[in-house]
Amino acid sequence: MSSLVLDGGLATHLEALGCDLSDELWSAKLLLEDPDVIRRAHLDYFEAGADVATTASYQASIPGFVHRGLTTAKAADLIRLSVTLAVQARDTAGHGVVAASVGPYGAYLANGAEYTGDYDLDYDGLVGWHRERFEILATAGADLLACETIPSFEEAAALATLLRESPSVRAWVCFSCRDGEHINDGTPFKESAALFDDLPNVVGVGVNCTAPRYIPDLIGHGATVVYPNSGEKWDAAAQRWSGLADPVEFGQAAAQWQTLGATSIGGCCRTTPDHIREIKSRLS
């Protein structure tokens, strides 16, 4: 069985390239300030062996850019630019797929809510909040949408509604999970994933921004798209990160995830081109 190799942490690599992302817009601020470095980061992942570039639109939103002082039209242009940059990198690399990142409402809040699902919007509010950016990204030239880091059942239901309204838009949907059985708001993963069972345009359901140790159990519950974070935790006493940061160990784990049934495998926060290179070598 072959698996699609996804890219790694875009923001992590942008920081390694010297970018300061200490901003509510996170990596999306570079769409405004330095788009060339985003294109370079995508290309680095393709050259490391990734089959997929995930765009820098995770934290990009109309309200977020308007709050920064931009017009709605300029904000929409920057969201489209995120796709253009990934397409340009793909064309330079000569291979690959572009997945337009549809980040959660919590990413816009920039208060950690994507790790809890503790929102101030209900289902209807979430449908309304996501709709405009969803429609922009769906028509911007990407091959599919990556609805990712979804922490709550209500937000998943809102995205399922938008995908049901757009049957020609292909997407994968990935949840952020608190353990090997539940998404971050406590809903069972299987229950959350079932929202997309009747949607043929959803090409995979899985998990991202989740500790690697939970991935085997989540695959057992039906996850096929997996791109966990590095699994590191901050050790305050030693003043360092500890966990599954080693790219070789991560690649070995990826081979296990493939054996268990994952069909698309990559990395999220604090994973790098080195991690993707190891995944590619293990899965080839």
TrEMBL record:
Residues 1-283 form the Hcy-binding domain. Gene3D superfamilies: Homocysteine-binding-like domain. PROSITE patterns: HCY. SUPFAM superfamilies: Homocysteine S-methyltransferase (SSF82282). GO terms for biological process: methionine biosynthetic process; methylation; S-methylmethionine cycle. InterPro entries: BHMT-like, HCY_dom, HCY_dom_sf, Hcy_S-methyltransferase. Binds 1 zinc ion per subunit. Pfam families: S-methyl_trans. This is S-methylmethionine:homocysteine methyltransferase. It comes from Planotetraspora thailandica.
